[in-house]
Amino acid sequence: MQISETGLRLTKSFEGLRLRAYQDSTGVWTIGYGSTTNVKPRQVITQQQADERLRVDMATAEHAVNIGVRVVLTQNQFDALLDFAFNEGIGSFLHSTLRELVNEGKFAEAALEFSKWTKAGGKVLEGLVKRRAAEAALFTSPVKQEQNEHTHHP
C-alpha cells in the first residue's frame, strides 16, 4: 500500500513546511516536511527538495507499515498508521501496542492507543495531542468507495 492524497495532506498539515533547517522540540535538526535525515544547521532547501525528501521519508515509513501489519487495512487505517510511524519513528511504531492491537484485529482498541503518544522530551505537546486525535479520527473513519480498491492484502 501507499499513502493516499488524504494521508499526505494530514502529514503535511501537521509537519508544516520549513525550507530552512531548525531544531524540533527535542533538539533534532529538521527541514522540509519534518525530515531529519542528513540535516545541517543553516541548511536551506527548495520546495522541490522538500517534496523529494518527503517522498523518500514516506517510502521508508510505508515499507515499515506494510511489513509490520499482517491484517487487511482500509486506506484510512493505513494512512493514519503511516502518519504515526512517520512522526514517532519506525522503531516506535514496530514495537508499539498500537501495532500489536491492529495485528490482532482489535481496531477499536488500537484507535485508543494513538492518544498515548503525545509527549516529546517528556512533556505533553498540544500539537501532538491534536495530531494523535486526527490520526485516530482518520483510522476510525469509513472509507469512500473509490478508496476501497486500495486495501492492504498481506
UniProtKB/TrEMBL annotation:
It is an enzyme of class 3 (hydrolase). HAMAP family: ENDOLYSIN_T4. InterPro entries: Bacteriophage_GH24, Endolysin_autolysin, Endolysin_T4_type, Glyco_hydro_24, Lysozyme-like_dom_sf, Lysozyme_dom_sf. Pfam families: Phage_lysozyme (PF00959). It comes from Granulicella cerasi. Its EC number is 3.2.1.17. It catalyses: Hydrolysis of (1->4)-beta-linkages between N-acetylmuramic acid and N-acetyl-D-glucosamine residues in a peptidoglycan and between N-acetyl-D-glucosamine residues in chitodextrins. This is Lysozyme. Belongs to the glycosyl hydrolase 24 family. Keywords: Antimicrobial, Bacteriolytic enzyme, Glycosidase, Host cytoplasm, Hydrolase.
